[in-house]
Amino acid sequence: MKKIDQQHILEDDYCVIDVRDYVSAHNQPFPSAENIPLSYLPRVLQERFDCTKDIVLISDDFRGVRLAAKLIRKRNNRPIYYLQNE
After folding, report:
1. What is the mean pLDDT of residues 2-13?
2. Chain centroid to CA 59
3. What is the CA radius of gyration of the chain?
4. Sign of dihedral through CA atoms 52, 54, 14, 22?
5. Among 20, 31, 32, 49, which is disulfide-ready with 45 (CB 3.0 to 4.6 Å)?
């Protein structure tokens, strides 16, 4: 898991997942990101997640990124990057 620059994400080469809660994502939206709060991520991965691109996670803290990456790696073996919103 590597940190990525915001300019690279805007190229549409990534599945961008915002794992922040709904309020944070609404107050500081990230363009082209799908908001899936960390607590909902296991269910979404099981029901409808089918990303074929590299994955970028957006979170307020690194702990959330680590947990989300661990869950995603169980189902998808794509490279995972992160952008920490501050």
Report:
1. 80
2. 7
3. 12
4. positive
5. 49
